[in-house]
Amino acid sequence: MPDLKAHIRQSTPIPLDAALACAPGEVLALVGPSGSGKSTLLRVIAGLYKPDEGRVSVGDDVWLDTAAGIATPPHRREVGFVFQSYALFPHMTALANVESALDHRPAADRPGRARELLALVHLDGLEARRPAELSGGQQQRVAVARALARDPKVLLLDEPFSAVDRATRKRLYREIAELRRSLDVPVVLVTHDLDEAVMLADRVAVLHRGRILQTGTPEEITTRPASPDVARLVDLRNVFEATVVDREGGGIALDWAGHRLDVSPDERFPVGTRVSWVVPDGFVVLHRRDRPSRGERENPVSGVIDSLLVIGQTAHVTMRIEGSEDLPLHFTVPAHVARRNGVEPGIPATVSLLVEGIHLMPPADNN
Amino acid sequence: MDWTALWLSLRLGVFAVILLLPIGIVVGRLLAYRHFRGKGIVEALVALPLILPPTVFGYYLLVAFGAASPVGRLWEAVFGGSLVFTFEGLLVASVIVNLPFAIQPMQRAFEAIPQDVREAAACSGMSPLRALRRIEIPLAWPGIATAMVLSFAHTLGEFGVVLMVGGAIPGETRTIAIAIYDRVQAFDGQAAAQMSAFLLALSLVTITLTIGLSRRVGRRLG
């Protein structure tokens, strides 16, 4: 099975500037806030939307090449598309819905194949039901079976989990994760939910205003964002500015509002440059009051607890840093740790910012 | 009862519906899905027969169909007969007068099909024609049927336009509505009553069918 490749540019009416590639068996998630153009990119791949400039190809099949005047209509592109609201054919049974995407197979094989696909998504026994007689989760599975029926070269999923309840969603995640192991086609998933993307995707592309800001593994995206914008979009809140300075004994350090932070070597930023830096919640370690803990010597920073919010078993803490009242640092600790250490607003505390977690970025654009 | 007039009206109604069905599907679908410049004007033109007095409409058709007009001349050149005071002329007039009754319900029915359902048809590999046959027409069917029923009934009852364009030639252009008027003019109360009762019954059946069908559209897509 061949790779999916697409690059798309357009300035109006929806600004788009994106290049993406997805290998067979790989799940690429397009993540971004609503209006970021992620669904439009999916629609361009399927042929449901034609951009001003672009090229979409799967192996040797070119589906769109605006420069060469090629624009294959959607019914001649071998895509499986799962719509946000499933878009099942309301007048047809579940079986007929799946069969309707089997026109490329001999008529005699269609009912058997449709049954097979419905069994694959655990819907055997419900073949004769119409969409209105199925639950949201069941409808979603019919939609997946119908998308697979076409023997697609690319599977496109547009916010496929947004219309089902939480419990169903978790079950569907597991099923999709299982299903994709048996699929050997590129899968592109559009979602506004970063957790969903991290859970299901091999690579994540972060979109903002029609532009792909960064593509990387879920770990890269969530710990080493390419810019402060990406950091914000992936919900990293500890984004600050600092100046690169010499580190005693070689390497570089950061001067952050008077605090000196050791960081890993990064050749992009010579001494004296202004940088943005980020530290994910998980790399902020609260010092225990009774005994020292792991990494206490690493970048200790003191301050005063500003707020504490306990949600379930997790305490979300913000801390005002000494010497700079306007920089709240966010971190989370298990609720019992917060209790045992007497973490409360107004109480002084010290945290370590682990060197391996500190990531440097070019400073934010001032626009 | 003027059986010739009734038979003529029924024939006229059936032929008009047969001609209006494809026109309604094509134009109704176009108006439902496409955005183009001048769409508002097209929609206004389609609706014009609803508000224009039938005699005014009939007058313009008469002028347009006449041997002096390009349309009349073209018709004569192609079919070798006149459009005025003939069954064919009456049929063309009925089709034009019934455009809003045929197009509007179909347009609404096509509009009611969600965009993603139509897109799903394309993404399932259906060509536009196949999608029309297997997805759009079945889903829009109650609206299409409503349009057909309405245009049929309206053709049967049309008076002003028919009189202007067709006159009242027995067996050629005298419809049942014209026949009723004739009978009243001739003080033949019994015949007028019979035919009026027949049209009343037909209208009741029509409107009941139409309401039932519109309810089905709601249920099917709801």
Explained architecture:
The complex is a heterodimer of chains A (367) and B (222). In chain A, helix 3 packs across helix 4 (136-149). In chain A, strand 18 and strand 19 form a beta hairpin. In chain A, strands 7-8-9-3-10-11 form a six-stranded mixed β-sheet, sandwiched between helices. Chain A has a five-stranded antiparallel β-sheet with strand order 2-1-4-5-6, covered by helices on one side. A five-stranded antiparallel β-sheet of chain A has the order 14-13-12-15-21. With 367 residues, chain A is α+β, with helices and mostly antiparallel strands. Chain A is 22% helix and 34% strand. The model of chain A has no long low-confidence stretch (mean pLDDT 89). Chain A has two domains: 4-233, P-loop containing nucleotide triphosphate hydrolases (Rossmann fold, 3-Layer(aba) Sandwich); 239-361, RNA polymerase II/Efflux pump adaptor protein, barrel-sandwich hybrid domain (OB fold (Dihydrolipoamide Acetyltransferase, E2P)). Chain B is mainly alpha-helical. Chain B has a single domain (3-221), classed as Orthogonal Bundle (MetI-like fold). Chain B contains eleven helices and no strands. Chain B has helices at 3-33, 39-51, 54-65, 70-79, 87-97, 99-111, 115-123, 128-157, 160-166, 176-185, 189-221. The longest helix of chain B is centred in the C-terminal third of the chain and has 33 residues, at 189-221. The model of chain B has no long low-confidence stretch (mean pLDDT 89). The A-B interface holds A 46-48, 73-75, 78-81, 83-85, 87-91, 100-101, 103-104, 146-147, 149-150 and B 114, 116-117, 119-128, 130-131, 134-135, 138-139, 220-221.
**Main β-sheet of chain A: number of strands, strand sense, barrel status?**
6 strands, mixed
- Major sheet attributes of chain B: none
Q: What's the β-strand tally of chain B?
A: 0
This entry's quaternary arrangement is heterodimer
Give me the strand/helix succession of chain A.
EEEHEEEEHHHEHEHEEHHEEEEEEEEHEE
What gap, in angstroms, lies between the N and C termini of chain B?
45 Å
Rg of chain B (CA only): 19 Å
Quickly give the CATH architecture of the largest domain in chain A: 3-Layer(aba) Sandwich
Indicate the overall shape of chain B: globular
Low-confidence stretches of chain A: none
Question: In percent terms, what proportion of residues of chain B is strand?
Answer: under 5%
CATH top level class name of the largest domain in chain A: Alpha Beta
Whole-number total of structural domains of chain B: 1
Class computed from helices, strands and strand pairing of chain A: alpha+beta
Chain pair with largest interface: A-B, 26 and 21 residues
Percentage of residues in helical conformation of chain B: over 70%
Q: Number of helical runs of chain B? A: 11
Q: What is the element string of chain B, with H for helices and E for strands? A: HHHHHHHHHHH
Helix count, DSSP H or I runs of 4 or more residues of chain A: 9
CATH homology-level superfamily of the largest domain in chain A: P-loop containing nucleotide triphosphate hydrolases
